[in-house]
Amino acid sequence: MPDYHNAKRSKIYTLSAAKGIACFIVAANHYFNLYPVSLSVPLLYLKKWFANGSYMVYLFLAISYFLASLKYYQTDHLNIGRESLIRYLRLVFPIMILYTVVYFLHELGLFNKLESALAISGGGDKAIDYSKITSLQFMYKTALFRTLIKSTADFVFPLWMIYAVFIGDIIALLFSEVWNSLKNSTARVLVSILCLFILWHVNFLYVLCVFASGLAYAYHKRIEIPGILTIFSTILGVAVGFHRGQTNLDKWLYIAGGTAPLFVCVNSKMLNSICSCRLSLALGELSFPVYLVHQPVTTSVCAYLCLYLNTIGLNKGYQNTLLFLAFLLMTILLAIIWLKMIQPLIQKCIAFIVKVLFQ
């Protein structure tokens, strides 16, 4: 059996599965904001956890920051400038392609039925003003600078999380370098407290960087995590998933709840073995494409289908079921196409640019 605690030899499959589950739940949460459904009380309580998009965002970001820090610890003399550029390119190319698709969907008028569909479904979400789309050049400018530099996501609002991934990964890398350069444990504690204070006031989401980086360091150094902490983390992660709120205390709960599952992911050999199956790996691979494509699907194809199902007079329950299944199938299909056809091209472009700049 592979040594799942050897960070250099084995992949942490549980992180891949958790990332995939988080992305699918966030996508479903955005769908249900636009096309809400009525559920019985027990199912509604269960939906409160599975549709808690805020908690899943914290979990996804914690995993991303953990992996960024782990890469630093595993790589000798990692060039953070080079790594930051690679991460920027890995995100900006997909955003440019997505904005190209959104531009042509807008030009074809495929977003025109959204308002009518929402009037029927009774849903609503952040206002999307597609009238601001003036040209393809404007969309590329938005992708290159505004989305990843200014956190602007006017036309695909879930992209704000991509900004948080990009900036947070860089913070995690920088924190890991500072942490690794300090040999005194007291100095490490003081620096961690200072970083927590600064990051909380800059953007509370980036507080996750400190905790994720610390756990990545412990994992890399094979520092044993007590079993009681793993059990407590499991209970905390599940409990926070049922909670919703926007106060400072709520934010700390989400930070704790988002970080807690990492202890389980890196400390459970049995769970890691289970998550090495093909389905789990597919969830992880599809996570990023699903996150990219799901919102244009809900605001174009689903809007037309919602209006059509309403005109043919189907039972409301059947309408909700068919519409959600259509959303799910379309999103997964587009994500697979992205994974198999578009992503390899992006990887080749990035490899070429990095070779030209750094060789």
Beta-strand segment tally: 0
Give me the number of helical elements. 15
Q: Rg, please?
A: 21 Å
List low-pLDDT spans: 1-9
Structural class: mainly alpha
Mean pLDDT, as a whole number?
84
The fraction of residues in strands falls at under 5%
How would a textbook summarize the main sheet? none
Overall shape: it is: globular
Quick rundown:
The chain is mostly helical. It has helices at residues 13-34, 41-50, 53-74, 80-107, 114-121, 136-149, 160-181, 185-202, 207-220, 227-241, 248-267, 269-274, 278-299, 301-311, 316-358.
What is the strand and helix layout of this fold?
Layout: H1 13-34, H2 41-50, H3 53-74, H4 80-107, H5 114-121, H6 136-149, H7 160-181, H8 185-202, H9 207-220, H10 227-241, H11 248-267, H12 269-274, H13 278-299, H14 301-311, H15 316-358
Helix pairs in contact: 1-3, 1-13, 3-7, 3-9, 3-11, 4-6, 4-7, 4-15, 5-14, 7-9, 9-11, 10-11, 13-15, 14-15
Textual characterization of the structure:
By secondary structure, the protein is mainly α. The protein has helices at residues 13-34, 41-50, 53-74, 80-107, 114-121, 136-149, 160-181, 185-202, 207-220, 227-241, 248-267, 269-274, 278-299, 301-311, 316-358. The radius of gyration is 21 Å and the shape is globular. The longest helix has 43 residues, at 316-358. It has 15 helices and no strands.
